[in-house]
Write a structure and sequence with these properties.
With about 100 residues, this protein is mainly alpha-helical.
């Protein structure tokens, strides 16, 4: 049996998507009709499964390994270059600039 590319449950993925949009735990809890403690538990499980240090690291890992790929467009957070400057928006922008 092949290893799953996405180790997260559907609920954990939803929580991570809300976190990627910048929502706080209280906002995620209200939107998903769960308690704040449940959201914290989901986030702890996400960090453990992705071997992430924190929320931002978990989101970065999810994008890097392609966990958000294949999700419906309305379910995937729109990440802009201005918000995450380490993520190039175009392959040519990843090149280093020549020094004067």
């Amino acid at each position: 049996m092949a290893e799953r590319r996405n180790p997260l449950t559907d609920v954990e993925l939803t929580v991570l998507e809300f976190a990627a949009r910048g929502n706080e735990n209280q906002e995620i809890a209200a939107t998903t009709d769960r308690s704040v403690e449940t959201i914290r538990s989901h986030l702890k499980n996400i960090y453990r499964k992705l071997n992430a240090r924190n929320r931002a690291h978990a989101v970065a890992i999810a994008y890097h390994v392609g966990i958000f790929r294949g999700r419906p467009a309305d379910a995937v957070a729109v990440i802009t270059h201005a918000r995450f400057p380490l993520m190039p928006t175009h392959p040519s922008s990843a090149r280093s600039r020549p020094t004067p």
